Prior knowledge:
Blueprint: E1 9-14, E2 19-23, E3 32-39, H1 41-51, H2 58-61
Antiparallel strand pairs: 1-2, 1-3
Amino acid sequence: MFEDDDRRYTVVRNHEDQYSVWPEDRAAPDGWEPVGVSGSKSDCLSHITAVWTDLRPLSLRS
């Protein structure tokens, strides 16, 4: 389902400051919020790579 290259995605983030991509036409799952970046899967993953530089959960970084 999530491998459709024509689908648009949005970047979502959870309370631990972890990122993922989610289909733009579906509501974000519980505990995840859109961050305002949408586009192709490749574009979304590029954004995540640029902003998520410390992969540790927020609770471990604090």
